[in-house]
Design brief:
globular, 6 helices, Arc Repressor Mutant, subunit A, 149 residues, mainly alpha
Length: 149
């Protein structure tokens, strides 16, 4: 791939990321009265097995520092959205769980998020194209995560 090929691909990906993020913020995040980082945090907890996970797992998923995630979790806890419970597998660790209020916020948000994604991907790409896009983006993510380590 030449540098102009790389530039074109990166410009297209960055443009799509910005536009998709703006659409999600406008149609799904803003109506919840929360910021996108909090919604991403709550959604990742909600999608985790048994709707709980360690803060370190969130830090890895979001590619944010543990201290940043900890501050975000503190704010979410202050708003009654999450709680921390002892990890049954490791006495030194804690699991982050959604409170009933946090679950309510995510369950209000998720259908709007799905609607945006359906509008963007479902009306633009065929099923095979969507599968190809997922494969390509997973490969790009893996490569980028390796560099970011």
């Amino acid at each position: 791939m030449t540098s102009s090929d790389t530039r074109g691909a990166s410009e297209a990906m960055l443009g799509a990321n910005i536009a998709l993020s703006a659409a999600i913020d406008k149609a799904a995040v803003t109506p919840c009265g929360r910021d996108h980082t909090t919604m991403d945090l709550l959604l990742r907890i909600w999608l985790s097995p048994q709707s709980q996970c360690r803060a370190s797992a969130l830090s890895d998923q979001l590619m944010l520092s543990p201290s940043h995630v900890s501050r975000r979790l503190d704010r979410a806890a202050e708003h009654g959205l999450v709680c921390r419970e002892p990890d049954p597998d490791d006495r030194r660790a804690q699991q982050v769980c959604l409170t009933p209020k946090g679950r309510e916020v995510v369950e209000d948000f998720y259908p709007r998020l799905e609607s945006v994604l359906d509008q963007v991907f479902g009306t633009t790409l065929s099923k095979p194209e969507q599968a190809t896009l997922v494969d390509l983006l997973n490969r790009v993510e893996t490569a980028a995560r390796e560099i970011a380590k």
